[in-house]
Design goal:
The model has no long low-confidence stretch (mean pLDDT 92). The relative contact order is 0.14. Helix 1 packs across helix 4, helix 2 crosses helix 3 and helix 6 crosses helix 11. The chain has 287 residues and is α/β, with parallel strands linked by helices. It folds into three domains: 80 residues, Winged helix-like DNA-binding domain superfamily/Winged helix DNA-binding domain (Arc Repressor Mutant, subunit A), CATH 1.10.10.10; 104 residues, D-Maltodextrin-Binding Protein, domain 2; 99 residues, D-Maltodextrin-Binding Protein, domain 2 (3-Layer(aba) Sandwich), CATH 3.40.190. The two termini are 45 Å apart. Helix 9 links the parallel strand 7 and strand 8.
């Protein structure tokens, strides 16, 4: 039984249609349909029910899905065992936007040298979305913000960086943070995001009065607004921040400085453990 055919079956079940699965696998819909038909013939049962453009798993399909996923994972492990240091296959890595510029270029370079037979698949997203993808086993690991809740033991968490909050303006401003915020519009980090909640919590703890210009979750856009003189903002001091010109950065000198922690959260059950370990080691050495 061809493992690639089983991978197509899983793709159809997860995507909900032949067409969507074909796009995900860079195949034609006809090719995916033929793979499913071949599996149905080999197993002598119907695997999918087609309703319009949708394809839903049958009861027989649902019964074999756990074993099919195990077969795919075992096939990956078998090839990894043969490869030097087990560095083979695909690592699906989720990453928040700032990590794309802070860490991903380095990781791509290191992977091309240390694991040339491996494929690093990068999925950008917000921390909350990446966490959901980890739960659904759509990605193997994620560079994300440490959640405010305890993560399940099925995940391995490694701290990569600690980023203190700072105030960003387009010129050097004198006075306390409270005075600066009282006299300048605040471009507020979206309080509905994991990172934005840290900023919002700090503002509430300091009992600071401020006027919100807008609320947004887009660091580059927020810095661009600051550079244009629209206001000031409070953001974590990520590695790429100092690459920006025409800004002034002021630390929040308080008794309880608020920080954003960047972590690598990995699924212990992922078949890509060797690649996850490589990713973790390279990140820690880079810091």
């Amino acid at each position: 039984m061809d493992i690639k055919f089983l991978e197509s079956l899983i793709a159809v079940v997860e995507q909900g249609s032949i067409a969507a699965a074909a796009r995900e696998q860079n195949l034609t819909a006809t090719a995916v349909s033929q793979r499913i038909k071949s599996l149905e013939q080999q197993l002598n049962c119907k695997l999918l029910s087609r309703i319009g453009h949708n394809a839903l798993p049958t009861e027989s399909c649902m019964r074999i899905l756990p074993r099919v996923k195990n077969m795919i994972a075992d096939s990956f492990r078998l090839r990894a065992d043969i490869a030097p240091q087990g560095l083979f296959g695909e690592l699906k890595l989720g990453t928040i936007p700032t990590a794309l510029t802070d860490y991903v270029p380095m990781l791509v370079k290191e992977f091309s040298t240390a694991a040339p037979a491996a494929n690093l698949l990068i999925t950008p997203g917000a921390s909350a979305d990446l966490y959901d993808q980890l739960l659904e086993q759509k990605i193997d690991a994620a560079l994300m913000i440490e959640p405010a809740f305890a993560v399940p033991k099925k995940f391995r968490m490694t701290e990569i960086a600690v980023e203190p909050l700072c105030l960003i303006s387009n010129i050097e401003l004198t006075g306390s943070i409270a005075e600066i915020l009282a006299n300048n519009p605040l471009i507020l980090f979206d309080r509905n995001t994991w990172g934005g909640k840290l900023t919002w919590q700090w503002l509430l703890e300091q009992n600071i009065t401020f006027n919100t210009l807008c609320e947004i979750d887009a660091f580059e856009t927020m810095v661009a607004m600051v550079q244009s003189g629209l206001g000031v903002t409070i953001l974590p001091k990520w590695r790429g921040l100092m690459l920006h010109k025409q800004i002034a950065v002021k630390d929040l000198a308080t008794a309880r400085p608020q920080c954003r922690k960047i972590i690598l959260l990995a699924d212990r059950a992922s078949a890509a453990q060797s690649l996850i370990t490589l990713c973790q080691d390279k990140l820690l050495k880079f810091i």
